[in-house]
Amino acid sequence: MKTKFMLLMIALLICAVPMFAQGAGGGAAAPNTWVPVTAGFAMAIASGLCALGMGRAVAGAVEGMARNPGATKVIQTAMILGLVFMESLALYVIVIIFVKVV
To answer: Domains of the chain: which residue ranges?
Structure first.
């Protein structure tokens, strides 16, 4: 029974493909007004996640420096490198927003 149902679903999906094809004429493209809104949400999500990641990274680095003061320079260098990589996410999102929206 399950096999017949799956075969029926596959057959329906294969038959439905031509219904979604667009003709050569096509309609006039409507202006996409949602691009700035989604760009704002993308920037908010990227900035929020960057801030959370940076907070956790700094907290871990400070805890590591407190436990092992001799390794402060190495931990600090690794922390700054990690913060740069995390901040690059927000910068990439800003570049993509400027390319797409502006």
So the answer is: 33-102
Check pLDDT > 90 for residue 29: no
**59/3 Cα distance (integer angstroms):** 54
CB atoms within 10 A of CB 60: 13
Q: Which CATH class is domain 33-102?
A: mainly alpha
Half-sphere exposure for 12 (CA within 13 Å, toward CB) = 6
CA distance 37 to 31: 14
C-alpha closest to that of 100 among 24, 11, 54, 35: 35
Number of Cβ atoms within 10 Å of the Cβ of 11? 10
Task: Judge whether residue 19 has pLDDT over 90.
Answer: no
In angstroms, rounded to a whole number, what is the distance separating the alpha carbons of residues 72 and 78? 10
pLDDT at 23 over 90: no
